[in-house]
Amino acid sequence: MRIAELLCAALLGGAVPLAHAAGADCLTQAEVTKLDTDFWAKFPSPDGFAAYAAPDMRLDTNIVDLMRPELAKADGPTRARSFAVYASQHPEYFAPFRTEHSSHYLYYPGRDRHPDAVKQASVFPANRCVSMFSFDDERHTCIAGARTRAMSFSFVKENGRVQLQGIEVGMEACQP
């Protein structure tokens, strides 16, 4: 289901035309390593989030503090920074995501660049054109009567730059 959501976001949202991915839009192993040191090692760093955020990055959430009207009108880096500040203020929910997340890399298995040809892998697929990838939270641990229902960061490589295209985070009440 998550793959279908990512493909719909890319195809219908216009984030990356998957059918026309070029070599410059293929993620490299070096960029994955750089993401580990610049983004994940300092998670949730407001500066790290803002540096990777696409200008039109979307923030889909049910967290009231992040649903302010002025934030909805802000640019992507401002939205990304706001989420990171909120996440750093609530480490009990978000700090484990730094090391406890699942990865999903979307790639083309050959020269066929048709959307139906896209495959998914949980580890970086060597010698493949990866242009979109996401990190998802699958813990859903109940802490103090609340838990993350969904949390996902979607990245794309577009015009030679790795960008945080979207943050999806939902919280819900739970019984410990």
TrEMBL record:
Signal peptide: 1-21
Keywords annotated in UniProt: Signal
Keyword check for Signal: yes
UniProt key word Signal: yes
Protein name, per record: Secreted protein
Organism: Burkholderia glumae (Pseudomonas glumae)
